[in-house]
Design goal:
- By secondary structure, the chain is an alpha/beta fold.
- It has 9 helices and 10 strands.
- The strands form 2 sheets. Strands 1, 2, 3, 5 and 6 form a 5-stranded antiparallel beta sheet that branches. A 5-stranded parallel beta sheet has the order 7-8-9-4-10, with helices on both faces.
Length: about 230
């Protein structure tokens, strides 16, 4: 279908424990995920089933042995599973966003510039990028007095909100979101839920991991169940 933004075909991932005699542990097998524009699919299944592994594979952090990861980029389906690093970076830059659980940024860079950097990298002026970044940080209840400070000095919840601002500021057509509200209070959880639903309304395809049942029910269009391979054996 033309509105499919992300699809995996027969995706498999195995980890090799080189320090334990090369023991191979299969984590994913035969994963067939389809995500359409404007929907949020929440990965479900017990702890250790491979949700984070699938998320990192979708973003290209993990290379998969078998299968395809197809992302609609500039109107064409690009297979990240076999793409060269330059193509992966181009897809991430323009099409595929990722909000991880933890903020990883260059030390001593102010929070405002951490967020604005995404837009500046796309050609926005520093003034425009900082204006948009400021609006988003304020919406996520990061006060102006913190905007000029590096996020390393922030609390865990503040860092997560900076991370969310950085992930959402680019308006990527496909967005991967890993535990977006894990460190947030009720007020900020509600803000994030609203941001996710607004992104869906704009046509963003979202894959999420979310253990908060209330948040999950508020954002999910459908679950995607992962089954432990040991149970399937």
């Amino acid at each position: 279908m033309s509105d499919v933004m992300l699809r995996t075909d027969a995706l498999a991932k195995t980890f090799t424990l080189h320090l334990q005699g090369g023991v191979r542990i299969p984590v994913l097998s035969g994963v067939g995920l389809v995500v359409h524009a404007g929907e949020c699919v929440v990965l479900s299944g017990p702890s250790g089933v491979g949700k984070s592994t699938l998320m990192r594979s979708l973003y290209g952090n993990y290379r998969t042995e078998i299968g395809h990861i197809l992302v609609r980029h500039h109107g064409e389906m690009v297979d990240l599973a076999g793409a060269d690093p330059r193509t992966v970076l181009a897809v991430r830059h323009e099409t595929l966003g990722y909000v991880s659980q933890f903020l990883r940024v260059v030390p001593r860079v102010p929070a405002l510039d951490v967020v604005a950097e995404v837009l500046i990298g796309r050609g926005s002026s520093q003034e425009d990028a900082r204006r948009v970044a400021t609006e988003l940080l304020l919406r996520l209840n990061i006060p102006r007095r913190l905007h000029s400070l590096p996020p390393a000095t922030f609390s865990g919840g503040e860092q997560q909100r900076v991370n969310l601002a950085r992930g959402f500021v680019g308006n990527h057509p496909v967005l991967l979101v890993d535990e977006p509200t894990a460190s947030l209070d009720a007020v900020n959880r509600a803000v994030v839920v609203a941001m996710i639903n607004e992104a869906k309304a704009r046509g963003t395809a979202i894959v999420a991991i979310c253990h908060d049942a209330e948040v999950r029910d508020a954002i999910a269009d459908r679950p995607f169940e992962l089954t432990p391979l040991q149970d399937a054996a």
